[in-house]
Amino acid sequence: MSFFVLILLFAAFGILLGYAAIRFKVEGDPIVDQIDSVLPQTQCGQCNFPGCRPYAQAIADGEAEINQCPPGGEAGIAALADLLGVEALPLNAENGIEKATLVAVIDEETCIGCKLCIQACPVDAILGAPKHMHTVIEAECTGCDLCLPPCPVECITMEPIAKTLSLWQWDKPDVSQKKAPS
User: Fold this and answer.
1) Following CA atoms 25, 31, 32, 38 in sequence, which dihedral angle do they give, to the nearest 10 degrees?
2) How far apart are the C-alpha atoms of 115 and 14, rounded to whole Å?
3) Domain check: are 43 and 60 in the same one?
4) Could you report the per-residue pLDDT of 44-95, keeping only the tens digit for each?
5) In a domain, 24, yes or no
């Protein structure tokens, strides 16, 4: 009899714990989500992390500085500094330099269909089949340059994105010339 009482008691506690786990579930650190939303989502690895989310986690944990993202540039660093309430730092040159937004373009006549570029692309922006030409889905390409090194025939070039009305933005402010309040 006491055995069945214990089983019912354990079942009741199990149901209670299951309900509490669902009801009070914590989705994650909201500051990591906020930092990740500021980052450019290129997944290029120039920050020495495998993607933007791990870099955001490292910033939140205090393991990385806010100035390691060349695609985000000075404007991204300023946005991160504003979000975290810290002083903006100059872009760390060891991680790369800020450059215009680029997109990969494959010379389809030279492409041999080796699919090494497909395997290197972190956002699946390259489309093709083995031993057939490949092409880049321009809207998906983040310009991370990770497809360039594995290409054995060097048929991939990085070109600036053509300015169209739908892509036009104001020029980024030059944050390096801000004066300290007096």
Assistant:
1) 140
2) 50
3) yes
4) 889 999 999 999 999 999 999 999 999 988 989 999 999 999 999 999 989 8
5) no
